[in-house]
Amino acid sequence: MVTVSSVLAFALYETVKTLLFPRISIIASHVITITVAGILAFFLSRYALARYNSALTEIERQAGITKEANRLLSAVLASLQEGVVIVNNAMEVVLYNTAATRMVKLPDGGQESWAHRSGDEGEVRSGLRSGAREPQSEESPSLSGRPPRLADATRDPAINEAFRRAAGERLLVETRVELAGREARAYQLQVAPLGSALVVGVFHDITELERLEKVRREFFANLSHELRTPLTAILAFSETLLGGAIDDRENNVRFIEKLHRHAERMAELISDISDLSAIESGGLKLAFGPVLLIDAVSEIAALMEPSAAERGVTIAVSVPADLYVVADPTRLGQILNNLVDNAVKFNRQGGKVTVSAEEKEGQVAVSVEDSGSGIPSADLSRIFERLYRADKSRSRKVEGSGLGLAIVKHLVQSHGGEISAASEVGKGSRFTFTLPVALAPSQKMGAAPQSIQDAVPQGDSTAVLETRRA
Ligand SMILES: Nc1ncnc2c1ncn2[C@@H]1O[C@H](COP(=O)(O)OP(=O)(O)OP(=O)(O)O)[C@@H](O)[C@H]1O
Ligand SMILES: [Mg+2]
Fold it and tell me: Which conformational region is residue 374 in: left (phi greater than 0), alpha (psi within -120 to 50 degrees), or beta?
């Protein structure tokens, strides 16, 4: 086509030239032809070059888009907490992210890794090649450069079966898997078909979810137990009184007193639970201000003195006299009350309780230390749970429902602080909580601060407080 057009154009050109210059010499004719051919070649090459350049720009643009898409996909995969493993129909791992290396035995590429060189994965393979890394051969199950096989990466039959079923039946398969490691973890594995040649498996870590569910179940079991105990006593005493003991002059007052004590116990329990749910749902309004710590501690120490004396326990206070904290005074009293109450009631006869405080980097750490029986390490991580009581047999003898520390923990957190416990069985325990340090009211030109921002020193402490509260 091009040849015919060129020949026709040349014939036309020759005809026009002969008509225009019938007597032209051969040399002049050649000169004209060469000039015209030169001009044409110039414009044609410019046109071709422009087309070539735009095609090149388009290719570069496409490559840029692909690279950017790969970069984004790599970043998304790397940031996922969920382990992602993609295998082909031959059960070879073609792609996985770093999180997946915690669940199956695949080399840790430090980013999402490419582990395949052949196959028909089409878009996925070419789309991810640029951000890919070959697995380290010494760690890799595929020493020969072959992609790792899923069966080599994990021996877990549930995982292998889920991938096989999803690949074979081309449907979504869900299963729960438990993997033993330094600490056993539970995963919800979802495997879904991806196109016609791949399947993608996503591991969701459900360990914490299951733990919370267990805590919730135990809470309700404990709650009904805690409520049933005083209720049974109330029923028993009231029935005894109704059955004639009301006329028993020697015992009726004692029975009514017991009835009252158990009713009081139930009321306390219910008030603690409603306190706790108000704190947890954020419904508790706190009135922050600068509180002179020594005053708050001394008040609680004095309040606890009678019950401490009953057990022969002494309470010592070692708090700097000029230390102010940002707190709601009532709630700070509740925190200290619970901690000192525990330190006294779980102490030994003739033991000691020390409340101390020190300031460090805009925070005040308050410690309540006792010389009691201590808390076994298995219980230590759970004592802040609602209704949890360590050493049930001993705790049953001591009054309490196991709500105190749960309330304390939430109150400390709503002040922007943290609480921790350390204990040694047979020696005693130490509970330490932090609160933001406050400027003394006199340092603020005598103005009594009303808000938490007024109360904390300017600069770092405010930032710390706001960060924690967020
Ligand atoms: N200082 C301590 N020494 C030893 N064991 C402690 C101490 N503080 C707390 N515990 C253990 O932690 C458990 C939970 O404490 P928490 O204050 O939440 O409940 P409680 O004191 O039993 O009841 P409540 O505070 O609701 O009256 C206690 O039952 C006890 O077993
Ligand atoms: Mg308590």
Answer: left
| Contact 371 CB / ligand 1 (< 6 Å) | no
User: What residue has token string 């395949």?
Assistant: 116
Whether the predicted pLDDT of 391 surpasses 70: no
Nearest alpha-carbon partner for 373 in 399, 413, 343: 343
Instruction: Give the closest ligand to the alpha carbon of residue 407.
Output: 1
- 404-423 per-position pLDDT tens digit: 999 999 999 999 999 999 99
Q: Are 449 and 362 in contact (CB under 8 A)?
A: no
Q: What is the pLDDT of residues 235-265, one digit of tens each?
A: 999 999 999 888 888 888 999 999 999 999 8
Q: Which atom of ligand 1 is nearest to the CA of 391?
A: 31
Whose alpha carbon is nearest atom 25 of ligand 1?
Answer: 404
Cα torsion angle, 410, 411, 412, 416, sign: positive
Three-state SS at 89: coil
Note the pLDDT tens digit of each residue in 188-203. 999 999 988 999 999 9
Measured over the CA atoms of residue 424, residue 430, residue 434 and residue 440, the dihedral's sign is negative
> How many residues appear in the chain?
470
CB–CB of 373/395 below 8 Å? no
List Cα–Cα distances, 287 to 138, 277, 293, 335, 339, in angstroms.
61, 19, 16, 15, 21
Q: Which of 323, 335, 321, 360 is nearest to 464 (CA)?
A: 360
Check if the beta carbon of residue 291 is closer than 8 Å to that of residue 329: yes
CB of residue 334 inside a 6 A radius of ligand 1: no
**Confidence class for position 394, pLDDT limits 50, 70, 90:** low
Instruction: Name 370's bridge partners.
Output: 353
Q: How confident is the model at residue 13 (pLDDT cuts 50, 70, 90)?
A: confident
* Mean pLDDT of the region 357-382: 93
Atom of ligand 1 nearest to the CA of 373: 4
Characterize the bridge pairing of strands 314-318 and 352-360. parallel
Which numbered atom of ligand 1 lies nearest the CA of 368?
1
